[in-house]
Each structure stands twice: as C-alpha cells, then as structure tokens.
Amino acid sequence: NTPSPTNTPAPTNTPLPGSGELTVRMVAGQPVSRNQNIEIILDASGSMNATIGDQRRIDIAHQALNTLLTELPATTNVALRAYGHRRSGDCNDIELIAPLGPLDSSALTARVNTIFPANLGQTPIGTSLQQGAEDLKNVSGDVRLVLVSDGEENCNVDPVQTAGQLRAQNPRLAIDVIGFTVDSATSDRLNAVAQAGGGSYFDAGNAQQLSAALREAILRSYRVLDANGTEVYRGIVGTSTTLPVGAYSIEVLGAESLQLQNIAVDGLKPAVVELNDQNGVLNAATPVPQ
User: Does 16 score more than 80 pLDDT?
Assistant: First the structure.
C-alpha cells in the first residue's frame, strides 16, 4: 500500500543564524497543478456519516476540499461529482454537482458544502468513473479524475475493469484514488482502481492526511529530507522554507516523482530548484542567482 501522506510542521520562515532559504518552484509559465482539467468525485454514501473523533467524515471531506480549492491556480478547470447523497439504496444516485469550468473557489466551496450523505446511500464507483470520464471526453490535453471514497464498490460494477477501459479509451486520462479511513482489504482494491486508471493511490486516515492526499493528487508537492533521511518540510511546489545550513534531498511527490540529492542551503544566497515539465516528464535545475 502507498504510505499515508503526513503533514510535517514547516520550519520557521524567520531567518536564523546559520540558516538559509530553500524554494522549489516551476519554471516561469508552468502551473503547479498536475493537470489543468480536473474532476473530483466525492463519496457521500451513508458511511460518510461515521465520525472520526468528534467530526463526521463528510465534514472532514468538506474542509479538505475547501482548503484545496483556495490553493488551486486560478487557471485550473474543475468539475465536481458526488454519489450516495440523495437517495437510500439507489446505485443511480450520482450527480454532476458542477460541470467542468474555470475555477471559482467561492462558488464551488458553496456547492461542496451542500453535499451530505443519504442514509444507506450506495457506493457506485465504477459508474461514477464512467460518468466522470464522459464529462471530460471532449477536453483537449491531459485530464484527471480524483476519487475520494471511504469504501469499495457495492453496485455490481467492476471499478478496476472500468478504470482500465477508460484509460485505454483515453490515454490522456489518469484516475487517482484516495481511500479515506479504509481497511487494508479495501485499500488494496481501491489501489487496483488507481493502477488500472494510470494514476496514484493514497491512504488517508484523518483530516490532515486527507488534505495532504488531495494536495499530492492534484498539486505538485515536495518534501525535504535532511542528511539523516528525516523529513523536515513538506509543501506545495512554489513555496519556500527556511532551513539550517546543510545539504538536503528533495523528493517531488506523486506520479511524476523525482528525487534530487545534495541540494545545498548555505545561508549566503537563496537555494532555488526549478522544475520543468517536458511532456509529462519532470526535470530539475538549480538556476544561478542573478
């Protein structure tokens, strides 16, 4: 199983003696989002009423999605689907909440916050993926479906087979899956959906991990490791952090994984790593400060 994303506290951004700034960013003109055209499919089946601590799963999902919407580049086109939120026991309870269009984070947040589970709402993952792919079929370029589910298919459609067929029909489609508070068997099956769909799978067991998984699925993100291999920072590409002087490794996360070694933070000048997406392949350079 893919390890659960974790949040680590960002080091202070106040320069300290013996410290320096590290920035990881895209080259000018390239977006931080992994795709410009994204559809999120939200599980709002009955089990999303279950609680983690004192919060319902659906409320945690609302918060994570709303945070994500504030972080997406303004150039992103976003669609939203949900299932299991209107009728009990109905495998056809799938709704396009917002069609693909330019990001309007406030309007989309308001729509997200109207989605609540129906008692005994079902989990029609396969059919939801089919409908999501149909929503995106006339979009040029790469497109991405991101499914957030706290359970597996229960509507007699094989979502693994469906994901593979959709990927074969449109090789520019990728399907990411986030398993939210699922057991190991369900995690394995949801992982198989993502693999068949040419995407990535993420386990999330709490609010912080769900937010991190959404960022990692949709936004290019990275983490910084010190000389001992300890994670000292994790953030979205485009962010900066202040670190003690030393040599660090950087891992760009997600399907476009990239590892960089011996990135020096010397405290004399900002350390900058620029990422360049060349037809889906990430390359990195450390430009010389001007």
Answer: no
| Of 66, 55, 65, 48, the residue nearest 117 (C-alpha) | 48
DSSP 54: T
**CA–CA dist 203, 177 (Å, integer):** 9
Is the distance from CB of 263 to CB of 271 less than 8 angstroms? Answer: yes
Q: What one-character DSSP code corresponds to residue 216?
A: H
> pLDDT digit string (tens) for 100-146?
999 999 999 999 999 999 999 999 999 999 999 999 999 988 899 99
Q: How far apart are CA 216 and CA 201, in angstroms?
A: 10
> What residue ranges do the domains of the chain occupy?
19-30+220-285, 37-218
Residue 99: φ, ψ to 5°: -70, 165
Q: Does domain 19-30+220-285 have CATH number 2.60.40?
A: yes
Tokens for 186, please give them. 């369900």
3-state secondary structure of 241: strand
Spell out the residues 6+ positions from residue 64 whose beta carbon is closer than 8 angstroms to its own. 207, 210, 211, 214
Cβ–Cβ under 8 Å, residues 208 and 215: no
Q: Which percentage of the chain shows pLDDT scores above 90?
A: 79
- CA dist 53 and 40 (Å) reads 25
- The DSSP symbol for 154 reads -
